[in-house]
Amino acid sequence: MVKAGDGMTHHTERPCAAHGWTSYRYAGRYGTIMIGATSTQDALNEADRSLTQGAATVERLEIWNALTGLYEKVTP
């Protein structure tokens, strides 16, 4: 388990996509869904595959911004 002050960040706070893909994360019902995708629509499709109820919505999707080093809300 990651503890405060150990110099590490939780995996949901870092980009996880393979080279050539964009890192997204989706706030799912039971936790964060980490996604590597080629577009916002592709990320929503991947989130849909992980959900047990309802459809994925762009309001719960975030994209990695390499310039700031943070995830940001996806604008519809």
Mean pLDDT metric: 88
Structural class: alpha+beta
- State the helical fraction: 10-25%
| Low-confidence region ranges | none
The portion of residues forming beta strands comes to: 25-35%
Secondary structure tally: strands? 4
Largest sheet: 4 strands, antiparallel
The quaternary state of the protein chains shown equals single chain
Shape: globular
Spatial gap, N to C terminus? 35 Å
Total individual domains: 1
In DSSP terms (H or I, runs of 4 or more residues), the helix count works out at: 1
- What is the succession of H and E elements? EEHEE
**Structural Rg:** 13 Å
Q: How are the strands of the largest sheet arranged?
A: 2-1-3-4
Identify the notable features of this structure and list them briefly:
alpha+beta
Describe the 3D structure.
It is a single chain. It is globular, with a radius of gyration of 13 Å. The chain has one domain. 14% of the residues lie in helices and 30% in strands. A four-stranded antiparallel sheet has the order 2-1-3-4, covered by helices on one side. The protein has one helix and four strands; from the N terminus they run E-E-H-E-E. The chain has one helix at residues 40-50; strands at residues 22-28, 31-37, 61-65, 70-73. It has 76 residues and is of the alpha+beta class. The mean pLDDT is 88.
Short description:
With 76 residues, the chain is an alpha+beta fold.
Layout of helices and strands:
Blueprint: E1 22-28, E2 31-37, H1 40-50, E3 61-65, E4 70-73
